[in-house]
Amino acid sequence: MHSEHTARDGKEHEKARMYMTQEINACIEGALEVGASEIIVNDSHGTMRNVLLEHLNPYADLISGSPKKFAMVEGLNETFDAAIFIGYHTRMATNGILNHTFHGRIIQNIRINGNEYGEFGLNAGLAGYFGVPVVMVSGCDLLSKEATELIPAIETAIVKHTINRTAAQNKSIQRSHEIIKLKTMEGIKNTNRINPLIIEGPFEVEISFLHSGQADIAEILPIVKRNDPTSVTFNIETIPDVYRYIRSLIMMVGSVV
Fold it and tell me: Cα(58)–Cα(67) distance, rounded to whole angstroms?
């Protein structure tokens, strides 16, 4: 993986969009084969306008565009039976492929009640608030380890093995699709034994930024208290509000620094 794949002006961005759409389709095919009746895909990377609608399986709806109140889990609520995360990364400052937490040029780490969470944990925790289990996630081998530490019974589609942050040993496209489809089917069939991730409140949230100027901006929000030169804390009662404040702080900081 490289910024040429992930940045909108990257030379290989259009190719990467097709790769992502095809992996989503493999997941959709698996879900349909085991009886899924309604599938909603939420485009979640960058500007959240990446999935190629003209190539998406016609049996799925697509949520695209930003900003969204719940970002990567927009549209999710208590009416859903399961959630699946495709193309996830380990949290910032780990060794996974393109490790980051929401924004790699802003966030060093996020702790809730002393426990560190990346995108997988935060999004799974919000799904858990609605009583929805995350039954499958795809990504690298280290992402699989991070996910199973939080949800032991989750199915993980390992489509690459990490060498370093921007180098990996990748499965072929065809093999990746097979793994994603199979793990999707297994995850959905085993939904009843995969528990939602419940993060108990009330919540003390600590966000560490990459430099003090970013914390300067975050500290402007009245709920936020400065913890040290690069980190801030705030206290809140519900996971949806935790999520929204984290996203709001990142957007505040990202718009200036």
Answer: 25
10 vs 4: CA distance, rounded Å: 4
Tokens of 141: 């081998």
The 10 Å CB-count burial string (b at 16+, else e) for 204-217 is ebbbbbbeeebbbb
Given the residues 2, 45, 100, 161, select the one marked as catalytic. 100
Least confident of 18-32, 88-102, 181-195: 88-102
Which amino acid, residue 254?
G
Tokens of 45: 């990377």
Query: Residue 116 carries which DSSP code?
Result: E
Q: Where residue 254 falls among pLDDT bands split at 50, 70, 90?
A: confident
pLDDT(257) > 80? no
Which residues have C-beta within 8 Å of that of residue 54, sequence separation ≥ 6? none
Contact call for residues 121 and 111 (beta carbons, < 8 A)? no
Catalytic annotation present for 100: yes
**Residue 226, helix vs strand vs coil:** strand
Q: Is the dihedral of CA 73, 75, 76, 77 positive or negative?
A: positive
Question: Is the whole model's pTM more than 0.85, yes or no?
Answer: yes
